[in-house]
Structure formats: structure tokens, C-alpha cells
Amino acid sequence: MKKRLLSLLLLVVIQMTFAQTNLSWQGYFSYNEIKDVSISTSGIFAASENALFSVNTISNQIKTTNTVDGLSGQTISSLYYSPKFNKSVVGYENGLIIVINEADGSMLNVVDIINKQLPANMKKINHFMEYDGIVYVSCDFGIVQFNLATMLFGDTYFIGDNGAEISIRQTAVYNGFIYAATINGIRRAAITSANLNDFNQWMQVIAGSWASIETFNTDLVAISTSGNIHRYNSNTNSFVSFVVLSQPTVDMRANDSYLIVTSPNSIYVYNKQMALVRQISSNQIPESDPVFSCAASAGGIIYIGTKENGLFTTTIVGVSDFKNAMPSGPSRNNIFAIEATSSSLWAVYGDYTVDYNPYPLDNYGISKFSATGWLNIPYESVLDAKSLVRIIVNPSNENEVYIGSSYSGLLKIENDEPSVLYNQTNSGLEQISFLPNYFNDVRVNGAVFDKSGNLWVNNSLVDNGIKVLKRDGSWQAFSTKTILADIEKSSFGRMTVDKNGTKWIATSRDGIIGFNEISNVLKKITFGPESGNLPIADARVAAVDNRNQLWIGTTKGLRILSNVGDFQTENQLTTSSIIILEDNLAQELLYEQFITDIVVDGANNKWIGTADSGLFLVSPNGQQTLYHFTINNSPLPSNVINDIAINSATGEVFIATDKGLISFKGVATKANEDLSEVYVYPNPVRPEYEGTVKIAGLIDRANVKITDIEGNLVYESTSEGGTLEWDTYAFGKYKVASGVYMIFISANDGVETKVKKVMIIR
Length: 762
Description:
Blueprint: E1 5-7, E2 13-14, E3 19-20, E4 23-28, E5 36-39, E6 43-47, E7 52-56, E8 62-65, E9 76-82, E10 87-92, E11 97-101, E12 107-110, E13 125-131, E14 134-139, E15 143-147, E16 152-157, E17 168-174, E18 177-182, E19 185-190, E20 203-206, E21 210-216, E22 219-224, E23 228-233, E24 238-244, E25 251-255, E26 258-262, E27 266-270, E28 276-281, E29 292-298, E30 301-306, E31 311-315, E32 323-324, E33 337-340, E34 345-348, E35 366-370, E36 373-377, E37 388-393, E38 400-405, E39 409-414, E40 417-422, E41 447-449, E42 455-458, E43 466-469, E44 475-478, E45 492-497, E46 503-507, E47 512-516, E48 521-525, E49 539-544, E50 550-554, E51 557-561, H1 566-569, E52 579-582, E53 585-588, E54 595-600, E55 606-610, E56 615-618, E57 625-629, E58 641-646, E59 652-657, E60 660-665, E61 679-681, E62 693-696, E63 703-707, E64 713-718, E65 723-726, E66 739-746, E67 753-760
Parallel strand pairs: 2-8
Antiparallel strand pairs: 1-36, 3-4, 4-60, 5-6, 6-7, 7-8, 9-10, 10-11, 11-12, 13-14, 14-15, 15-16, 17-18, 18-19, 19-20, 21-22, 22-23, 23-24, 25-26, 26-27, 27-28, 29-30, 30-31, 31-32, 33-34, 34-35, 35-36, 37-38, 38-39, 39-40, 41-42, 42-43, 43-44, 45-46, 46-47, 47-48, 49-50, 50-51, 52-53, 54-55, ...
């Protein structure tokens, strides 16, 4: 495949997880958008959109840090490593600062700037500058002191005219003065002044708008926002221009005896005599042509951050090839849709607005995660398919994958190679015809395989809205004109199929429609008590659970169809809400919530994603909320949940948000057909282990009894799905003693049995 990017990291990658009340999480973040870099004594730290990684230049080891480790999911804007204190300081666009103690990995969240009574759009952290143990934080409102020894804030300097807020881009200390590059001139004050919070102490040296300022060797260098590089002349107390760049700069820093200036397309490396020793253009990096964001040097190596292509390295002297030095990961953090199999995870990045408008069209590729790492297939290899929004894997052949597009039709991938793009020219799919300017606009936003291996898809905004690609390669179309109130305004969403072969499709204006080709019947569940009892006609997802109930998520809440078999017998299908008791008051579960996805796990629990309230896990009947994960109580990088997928073999739940992909390592796995593959882990249970014992490979509704070696019963339960957990307590009262414990497993009808042992060492 041409230009395929296989992000398999040859270096050692450490990905860290933490336990939160025995919960296990894993982060799968993109490290392609480099926001800032900082040099340490043994390597380099790099900040991507909302995660960090460090490269040890001695061992070539790469270590990642993300929300699982305690970082915020917000957007990072600045990064600084202090060699004196061995601490990394991370600044965010919303004003948050996180200080990481590199000795033990502990983190401190500093929220003083967030809490300042200032407009939210003025709190961005632009730059950190350390001087005499104090970090001077450049913000969009002024300068703030932060003491790395005491971990406390000092004074705040509002140095604009008459003490007004002013955006500070960067600060530097030179010959006893602290200089600040601002959008309204370069200003300075005596660094030893006890009253730096008095704006009168700050004198303007030069007018204009300035992007950066830095002390380098015996010089003070500043760059205007237009890209004009100046040096300070102490004799005349003025800045003198000496280089005019072809475009504005995005970064300037001094380290490793070099001054490095970065513009989007070029990097300029100057030595101590301010002579240009190397210039790097983006077109010198083959197959990438990146947009530069920052650059730093250490040990004669220059580290180059880019906006979409990660971190590159090359030598400053004796020009060498460019190498990519970053953790593997997906192409982007804003993942719109995912799909999991027993051995892989697929992700796409296309999207649409809340009313299904895909414009402006995006040109993103596809990502796949497997045991060999991340495979990122670039847009150039996906046959010009734009706005890829939905994934379906052939259940009988994992190497055959289909991806729906909200503009280009249906993309087929075979053995990781995009092979066919089905559209109006080579398939039964149709383009929008009622809008004259929408040429070649073929929208497929839902797909599902039936038991016979036929692929059913929905085709929005056309008369024949349901299509099927049969196993023999032929297409068949079915009209939806009779069921939709206005075909030209009702877009299709997600799609599922039940055990009877009935296809259920979410729509933007007609609720849920059901279709069964055997009876050639279409039925609708929509808004109103006489029409299906949905809270609104805008439905987003329908999921069939293990008890044949249809769980429906809308933009205004949740509804349940008690039995999908009613499609065969009832003229009007009617749903009901789930009423729960909260604070002794009857309330509707997920009332008014915008539900984006519902996925059923092996234990028949429901994972429910929302547009702005995080992720819910509810019990099989919805009466108990087992977990409600948000950015405040979990590693979720965002409360915006785009998609959910479960690996039925391992129980790992993948959660795609607009700020990153993360997974929850649950134990609700799909039930097995028999007890031939039952296993117990960990075994033995050692003294340092604090988790639960898992009995996996079970059939649904298996009876599990655990006794000590003398036959005394210590635990009994019935499995839901393929895995059951034992906390090693005797009926929840006390921890069992060291010894061998017998596990007796039997099917619900008693026909099939299995016996296992587990050793517990206290």
C-alpha cells in the first residue's frame, strides 16, 4: 500500500495504568500533535494534545503519561522541565497547571489561574521561564510567579497600560531585568524589584506586537509576530532587526549552545555567534511535508515537533536522515467511531454535525490496533473516501472490514488494504438527487451483517433507504418512502439486527424504524404516547440486549422496547422509560440526556455514552447505576462520548471521546458454548495481589460453588456472561485463609460440569 504509515515503535514503550478502587484503565492516545518540547539531563520531554512522553537519549526508552496517570484531558499549551527540581510543569489552555515530580511520578494540580476572576479565554498558559527557583508563567492576561520549592503561587503581574490585562507570549531575564514579549510591545522591569506587581515598574522598550523573547549567550533576542528577528543593543536600549523571515514564527528557544527558531515551514539553527548553521524545511522530510510547531536540541540532536506527524529527530552537524521518535498510537485523538473484534480495534475520524451534516468534508484515514501495534492507513490510501463514520467487521472473517462514509458510500478493506469503494457508480447505493450541488454525495451511516452473511446498510436521503450487499456480490434495495415523513430531511444513524433478522435503524426525524425483509414490513417507533412513546423523534442508537429487549437512545433520553418479537405481532410498537428511585424519589433513568451510544456487555449490563455527561454502566434491567464515569472521577479525557466498543473475548471496553481513546478492563465477557475452556486467574493468588479471582470461559447462567479443601462452602453465585469474579471473601464476611479451594461449576440444567482449583497464599 502506497504511503502506509505503520507506527510500530522499535524503541521500548512504557504505557502506564493505575487502579482506581480495583478498576483498571488503559490509554490509547495520539502523540502526533506536538504542542511543546523541553530538554532534560537525560533526554527530552514532549507534550502532545493532552498527553506527554519522554525519550531517554541514553537507553532510547520511551515513557508515556496520560489521563490514566493523572493528567487532564484538556489541551496542553506549554511544557517545561526543571533540572534543578527534577520536575515537569505542564500548562493548559484553560489555565490549569500540573506539576509532575519525575522522581516518583506524583502530580499536583494547580488551579489558582483557573479560579481567577477573569474571562475563560484569557487564562491560557503560553510559556514557562525559570529564574532563581521561581517559574514565571506567561499567560494571556499577564505574568504569574510559581515557586517550585514550595509549590505555591506568588504575585501576579498585570503589566498592560494602567495595569490592564495583556497577553504575554514569553519572558526572559537579561542583565538584571525581566523582559516580557507582549502583543503590545516589549516591556521590562528590574528582576530584583519587590514591587513587580506594580505596573509602573514595567517600562516599554519597544512598541509593536511580539511573539517571543529569549536570552542566548550574551545576547537578548526577540521576534516580532511578523517574523522579524531582533537583537537588543544595551548601549541604545533598543532592539535592532538583523533577519527578516519569510513567515511568522511559532517558537524560539535557546539550549545546547544553539538558538532555534521555528516557523510552520522552516527551522533555523543559530550558533553562539548568531550565524545560521542549519536550516530545515518541511519538504526535506519525505512523505510527510509536516507543519512545524516547535524544536529543541540536546547533544547535537535536534528534536522537531509537528502538528500532525509527531516528533522527528536529526543531527545539527553532519546532516543525517530524519527519524520518528514517539510512541505508537492512533492518528488523532478525536475518534468518531470504533469497532472491536477479539484481536483488533478499528477507529475512524470522520464526523458530522448534530443534524448529520458532514460538511466541510474531512480527509482522514483509518487506524487499527492489534497485537503488533498501531497501523495507521493515511487518507491517500483510502480511495478518496471522505468522512468515514461507521465500522462493521464481517463476523465470519475478521480480515474483511466495511466502513460507512457520510459522503463517499461504503469502503471495503481486505487484509488491511482498502480494496473497493462502493458508491452510485458500482453498486446499489444512491447519491442525493434533490440538491443540485450535492454531487456524488452517498451517505452510509449504519451497517450490520445478518446470520446469512449478508451486509445490510442504510442509505440516507434517498427513496430506497435500505440496501443489502448479498454474499454473492449482488445488491438489493428496499424503499423507505412509506415510513419516513420527509425523506429529504430524515437522516439515518446507527443500525442493528435482532435474532429474528429484523433490522433496527435510528433516524433523525422518525425515531427508530424496524424492517424485516421476510415479511417485507416496515414499522416505526417515534415521538408521542400513541406512536411509540419516544421522548423525541431524534433517535441515535438502538441496541438489542441478551434478553431480546431493544434499548433506544435519543437526544432526550432512554426508552426500552420490552421484546423485539413484538415486531411480528404488534401494529404499533410502544416503548417505556425506566423508573428508578433516587433519594426516595421516582425518577426517569437518564432523563433528558443526549445518548450517543449503547453497548451490551457479556453480563447484559449496558454501557451508555452521552454527548456531555460521560459514560454510564447500568445493570441488566437499568435499576442500578453501577458506574458513572466522568472527567472528575476517572481517566476519561472528556465527557463527550462518541462511541463504545467491547472486546467480547477479554471484556475490555473501549471508549472513544473527542479528546482521546481509553479503555476500561472489565470482566463481562461473552458466554461460551460449553465449559471446555474454563480457566482461573490469577492462580496461585499471592500475598501482594489485591484484586479478585476471575473464573473465565463460563457458559451463561452457570452455577459456581467454591469450597475449602474440607468441603465447607465459602462462595456461591450464578454467572452472567463468560466471567465471574470472587473477592476471596467467605460470603463477603472475611478473607479466606491460605489453602487450596475447589471450584465446582455446573450448567443451569446440571448436564455439564467442571471442577477447578485455586491456591491462595496469604
